[in-house]
Amino acid sequence: MSVNYLILIFTGLYLAGTFFYYKYAVKKGIEFRYKPITLLVVAVLFLVALYGIIVGKQLI
Q: What is the C-alpha radius of gyration for the chain, rounded to an integer number of angstroms?
């Protein structure tokens, strides 16, 4: 398995978990505790890995 696929899987799981926690927090009325810069970095890493898979170049 290539590095791009591993990064895509782990960042995708992180973003999906964050999204589901956000929906849960809104539903329960509790504070959403993730830092925006962390989410931005993970989202950019996800997009770069996705681009690498589409184009066929390795990220690292």
A: 14
pLDDT tens digit sequence for 40-56: 999 999 999 888 888 88
pLDDT value at 5 more than 70: yes
Q: How far apart are CA 43 and CA 8, in angstroms?
A: 10
Q: Enumerate the domain spans of the chain.
A: 3-55
Contact partners, residue 60, CB within 8 Å, separation at least 6: 3
pTM: 0.79
Q: What is the pLDDT of residue 42?
A: 93
Q: Mapped to the 3 state alphabet, what secondary structure does the chain carry?
A: CCHHHHHHHHHHHHHHHHHHHHHHHHHHCCCCCCCHHHHHHHHHHHHHHHHHHHHCCCCC
